[in-house]
From TrEMBL:
Gene3D superfamilies linked: Winged helix-like DNA-binding domain superfamily/Winged helix DNA-binding domain (1.10.10.10)
Residue ranges of domain HTH marR-type in the record: 20-154
Protein name (record): Transcriptional regulator, MarR family
One Gene Ontology molecular-function label: DNA-binding transcription factor activity
GO process annotations (BP): response to stress
Organism expressing this protein natively: Fimbriiglobus ruber
Lineage top rank: taxon: Bacteria
Pfam families referenced in this protein's UniProt entry, alphabetically: MarR (PF01047)
Length: 164
């Protein structure tokens, strides 16, 4: 009794078109997985990651208010509707806005005491979240990762970006 030859296996199509695509999709997937953990934390405080980032930037400048356009430049990710985000934070009593006396077109934004208190309340849960996200990496690995991410985005950052 003879057995039929095993059918030839077709080689699988490559999963990625290029090393750049593989790196990009890996970065995107990683962002999605890590962001899900962060969304849980911010959801407990009725905030988004962008709203948190904005409050964090305002606290760094506190007690000085910051012009809206400077805030936009400093955000981690682009905010297509900064006005709506500011409206929600102001309605929650977390920020205040005033028109500049020097230039009425400029709106100055500052964090309120309630905003600072909320940031203080978020600090420990967020630190624990970051530990869950990346605590399995060594300090050297984190430094390498940070350096590689900087190198990847550097050609795409505006010349005056604080992220350069």
């Amino acid at each position: 009794m003879s057995s039929a030859p095993a059918p030839k296996r077709r080689s699988a199509a490559p999963r990625f078109d290029s090393p750049e695509q593989e790196a990009y999709l890996g970065l995107w997937r990683t962002y999605d997985r890590l962001r899900a953990l962060e969304d849980e934390v911010f959801g407990r405080f009725d905030l988004t990651a962008q709203q948190y980032n904005l409050l964090r930037l305002l606290r760094a400048a506190h007690p000085d208010p910051v012009p809206t356009l400077k805030l936009v430049d400093r955000l981690v990710s682009r905010a297509p509707d900064i006005t709506r985000m500011l409206d929600k934070l102001e309605a929650g009593g977390l920020i205040s806005r005033i028109r500049s006396s020097k230039d009425r077109r400029t709106v100055l934004v500052g964090v309120t005491g309630s905003g600072v208190a909320l940031l203080d309340q978020i600090a420990e849960p967020l630190r624990a979240c970051h530990e869950r996200q990346l605590g399995h990496l060594s300090v050297n690995d984190l430094k390498t990762l940070t350096d590689l991410l900087h190198a990847a985005r550097l050609p795409h950052e505006p010349g005056d970006s604080p992220w350069r």
